[in-house]
Amino acid sequence: MSTDLGLPTLRGGTSRDPERPQDPRLIDTFGRVATDLRISLTDRCNLRCTYCMPAEGLDWMPRSEQLTDDELIRLIGVAVHELGIEELRFTGGEPMLRKGLEHVLSAASAMEPRPDMSLTTNGIGLARRAEALAAAGVNRLNVSMDTLRPERFATITRRDRLQDVLDGMAAAQAAGLSPVKINSVLLRGVNDDEAPDLLAFALEHGYQLRFIEQMPLDAQHGWERTEMITANEIIEKLEQRFVLTESDEDRGGAPAEKFLVDGGPATVGVIASVTRPFCGACDRTRLTADGQVRTCLFATGETDLRAMLRGGATDAEIADTWRNAMWGKKAGHGINDPGFLQPARPMSSIGG
Ligand code: SAM
Ligand code: SF4
């Protein structure tokens, strides 16, 4: 736990970094304020995307290490009520594999002020659950889909489930979870010729497409910079069929650079985490399924809130430990630094 024994204390008996101003929010030394909490609900998954995990899967987190629903709801309450979190993004692993998902969502959506809630999913089973997710308070969905060709989908995810994903998106839109956003990762020699087709599909259905640069967060540590399709390449590929103009909409803390397609109003986004990092505007804090706060996807350290919860800490103590953790957030992710080290946890366990 990152508590600093012997330092001045705040109300509730918690310790505080002496340099950190008395501010209830999650501020850091670079002037950023985290208002967006990304929560990993489970590290398990029913797909095996090649850029994320190996074919055999991973050693999943033991259930006893995972936060219970009540523990998770309590931490979300601390974040919303004490720390000024305005947005909750639920992810994983595959968040729909979490038992009690709708219960956690309903509890979060009843909090005041009501947080904006979104879910990032691979879409398997979404067709059956879209209405229940909307009823539980989800405002928006991001569905990951890298290809429109069934055989490529089976190659990339190692499961032949493209139709489930397509059906899931349609059901989400019908349930009012719109705009449905699609996340796509392009892989050299696999699906990198499909960028314009994916965009045409999104335009036709009223979905919002965003391409994500592949990041060094796979469990196998197989990422190679030369294999990554860069933002520039993605834009070039799209421009073979569409006219893109930079949108002048304020990006805020949003990771995607937005472009108007053929003059708009439709847009396409590119999340260039590697070649055009947006760390200076980052407004995120992260919670893993086993109750660890991370300041960044690429952080190498974590702060253990589960131990505090299980050790009887008060909400005020937990909130202050979370503030201390975020006060120590680094300026950037460092992917482009010569000494960069990939974090030990893979994306599927951190929560992408
Ligand atoms: N299973 C859910 C899904 O696929 O949407 C949620 C978790 S997944 C880790 C979240 C997003 O991260 C997906 O859009 C996925 O494509 C993306 N992702 C996974 N590994 C990645 C990597 N190494 N680089 C970039 N994006 C990655
Ligand atoms: Fe599962 Fe999402 Fe990773 Fe694919 S990207 S293996 S769907 S966690």
Structural features, described:
The protein is built from 10 helices and 14 strands. By secondary structure, it is α/β, with parallel strands linked by helices. Helix content is 28%, strand content 16%. The strands form 2 sheets. Strands 9-10-11-8-7-6-5-4-3-12-13-14 form a 12-stranded mixed beta sheet. A two-stranded antiparallel sheet has the order 1-2. β1 and β2 form a beta hairpin. The chain has helices at 69-82, 101-109, 126-135, 150-157, 162-174, 195-205, 231-239, 305-310, 315-327, 347-350, and strands spanning 26-27, 33-34, 36-40, 87-91, 116-121, 140-144, 181-185, 208-212, 244-246, 257-261, 267-271, 284-287, 292-294, 303-304. The protein binds S-adenosylmethionine (SAM) and iron/sulfur cluster. S-adenosylmethionine binds at residues 45, 51-52, 91-92, 94, 120-122, 144, 183, 185, 212, 214-215, 217-218, 347-348, 352.
Please list the strands of the largest sheet in the order they lie side by side.
9-10-11-8-7-6-5-4-3-12-13-14
CATH-level-4 superfamily name: Aldolase class I
Helix/strand-derived class? alpha/beta
Number of helices: 10
Please indicate the count of domains. 1
* CA(first)-CA(last) distance: 23 Å
Broad shape:
globular
Spans of at least 5 consecutive residues whose pLDDT stays below 50 are: 1-13
Give the averaged pLDDT, no decimals: 93
The secondary-structure element order is EEEHEHEHEHHEHEHEEEEEEHHH
Cα Rg: 20 Å
Question: Share of helix among residues?
Answer: 25-40%
CATH topology: TIM Barrel
Largest sheet: 12 strands, mixed
